[in-house]
Write a structure and sequence with these properties.
With 258 residues, the chain is of the alpha/beta class. 34% of the residues lie in helices and 16% in strands. The protein has eight helices and ten strands. It has helices spanning 37-49, 57-64, 82-95, 128-136, 156-174, 190-198, 232-240, 250-256, and strands spanning 14-17, 19-20, 34-35, 53-55, 72-79, 100-103, 140-143, 180-182, 203-209, 221-225. Strand 8, helix 6 and strand 9 form a beta-alpha-beta unit. Helix 1 (37-49) packs parallel to helix 3 (82-95) and helix 5 packs parallel to helix 6 (190-198).
Length: 258
């Protein structure tokens, strides 16, 4: 299948966040995926001072297609943590930004139980009411499968149900279109990208590092991670330079353009 391509006139960073909360004590598993609320507020303030418009994936689409130009940055959150609503939403509203939160549909109102075998602390995920509050606040929900599945480990039909089912589930929960997908763990093959396209998604994001450049597939978009250790100067460098682009594997670039 021929995948739709990105044709921006300038590199576009899509930021990846997970939890917006104070990090657990040193030594805790995946501590680096926490960004403190005050640090997140400073980061959004920096983007605004630099003249960036923070957008959801839907808001980013005209720029990815080359239909519009401007200093824009995509803002995404993976997994659907409740602390995204409580800590990130007010900041985003204050600076006039939008964002996309990729939700694991079968875990709405539950916890990140897929992380439990790794010793990661269990944290509340958004339930139906919180998801609707997120959308009512001007933000967007994307799909992250039904169970945070490792797609390459699944038979094709089960992978199809994880992908398409997550969209159907979430649209019923939020009563709004769900047009964007994120591969759990960043693991996927060209067959999974085809399943994403068949399910009607407009884009799919990965964990490959880099800014989005011309020729990238809309179904295999790289992103720029923002971690607990990401300082404001480093965030600025990630936005304006090839710092993240150089960390993208040649194999992933070829895969994204297949």
């Amino acid at each position: 299948m021929s995948w739709p391509r990105v044709v921006p006139r300038r590199a576009i960073p899509i930021l990846t966040y997970h939890q917006i909360a104070v990090a657990p004590p040193r030594g805790a598993a995946f501590r680096g995926l926490y960004v403190a609320p005050d640090a997140f507020a400073r980061q959004m303030g920096l983007l605004r001072r630099l003249g960036y418009q923070g957008l959801s994936m839907s808001g980013l689409m005209p720029y990815l297609r080359g239909e519009r130009t401007g200093r824009v940055v995509g803002i995404t959150f993976d997994d659907g943590y409740l602390n995204n609503l409580t800590h990130a939403l007010p900041v985003l509203q204050r600076v006039g930004y939008s964002a996309t939160c990729y939700m694991v549909s079968d875990r709405a109102g539950g916890t990140n139980d897929w992380d439990e075998p790794l010793g990661v602390a269990q944290v509340p995920l958004m339930d139906r009411g919180a998801l609707r509050a997120w959308v009512a606040g001007g933000l967007e929900i994307g799909a992250h499968t039904r169970s945070h599945a490792r797609l390459p480990d699944l038979p094709t039909e089960q992978a199809r149900r994880e992908i398409r089912g997550s969209r159907d589930d979430l649209e019923a929960l939020v009563d709004a279109p769900v047009r964007h997908f994120c591969y759990p763990y960043g693991e996927y093959t060209s067959d999974h990208a085809n399943l994403v396209a068949a399910a009607g998604f407009d884009t799919a994001t990965t964990t490959e590092r880099g800014r989005v450049c011309g020729g990238d597939s809309l179904l295999a978009l790289p992103r720029v991670p923002v971690l607990r250790s990401t300082s404001l100067p480093l965030l600025w460098i990630k936005l304006i330079s090839a710092y993240e682009d150089r960390r993208r594997s040649p194999a992933s670039q070829n895969h994204a353009r297949t």
